[in-house]
Amino acid sequence: MKLLQLLRILLATVICASLAHAEEVSVAVAANFTGPMEKIAPAFEKATGHKASVAYGTVGKFYAQIKNGAPFDVLISADDETPIRLEKDGLALAPSRFTYAIGKLVLWSAKPGLVDDKGEVLKHGDFKHLAIANPKVAVYGAAAMEAMKKLGVDSALEPKLVLGESITQAYQFTATGNAELGFVALSQIFKNGQYAPGSYWLVPPTLYTQIRQDAVLLSHGKDNAAATALLTYLKSDAAKLVIRAHGYEF
Amino acid sequence: MFLSEGDLQAIWLTVRLAGVVTLILLLLGTPIAWWLARSKAWWKGPICAVVALPLVLPPSVLGFYLLLVMGPNGPVGHLMTALGVGLLPFTFWGLVLASVFYSMPFMVQPLQTAFEAIGERPLEVAATLRASPLDAFFTVAVPLAKPGFLTASVLTFAHTVGEFGVVLMIGGNLPGVTRVASVQIYDHVEGMEYLDAHRLSAVMLIFSFLVLLAIYAWRPKPVKGA
After folding, report:
1. What ipTM describes this predicted complex?
2. Which pTM does this prediction carry?
3. CA geometry: angle at B52 spanning B72 and B90, to 5°?
């Protein structure tokens, strides 16, 4: 009869746990938001008792996965186009969408002194490789192309461009020195109010279309309390503090 | 046209890469396989293991290490800069070097098996007929191991065509230089151009099937009662 007793206790535990409404949210996060999310997820878990299982990657890949039934509850995107597209596909809930951060583009080199504070280095072209995220698939890559076009250096620099499949890879190429410099997200080199070693140029916002990063509740998560809680938490002052500390604006 | 210009460029680049890699590995892999098939040295085991490493290691590990080793602060990077060649990441020859390492087991292992199957006897006979070891290798071992050479070459070529992770890590996605077919498909998918992705994927699928079909069809049939 001991087994039966054990089963009863187990059953009671399970019921109690579900009564406490601790749920798990599965969230797809754009690569550029990796840094802040690594801080926000545990804080969210601590504050709400819910669990967040986080996947990082490119938004294009997430779109393909969500369209094919990936069980994500929330998308924290690098743009506003993909969430809107998912809404049109009937896979995301429009009223839940909001801009959680405005992304900043920065020209960065791991080498001190290479990048000047006016971006003149782009005109001298005194380097072999310039890394950007693939502009076809990544917002930050498209923003980099736009900035180079506005500066009139795009055709001169074209042969020097190396494309990362995501902004993470553009950073990797630059951080390892294989590309002397690269356009990356400010969040990748600005952490806790400190710039990574090297040299950088904050690209003026007039040179590229504002990078509005939206988050949205996906249809799969519409009855998931943790999903709604995460979106609410993303708007909280605690989350905003972390987001701002990584160089984003609102 | 069924495929876009970019797709055709990617296919042509893939074929060139796979061709060059197969050729280099034929020259490099044959002596290694020959030595592995006949050596009794204690370090034969470790060499075998190193050759087979790419079968086990995830491409992300290989790509990451290659990026560091071939980078400006890595040993290969230093060597290449000293030789005046320039850094290898983001170049065609960088991909060749990575692929030679990555596809090595697909050349060496079938060849090693083929050489081992020949045994000592035919070579001893050749020696009694005053054939030098080199002579015996080319006139006896190579003809006998012909099916092995065929399988090894086709597998190496096909495996290089199917490469993705390593190329993605060290290629930099340059059209005509490092944007091979598998990366082009990835780009299409990521860019949500699913129709283009379908077309190029279909070409890859048919190619892979035909390659494997050829290998299995050409395989000599076992003799009954042998």
Report:
1. 0.77
2. 0.81
3. 25
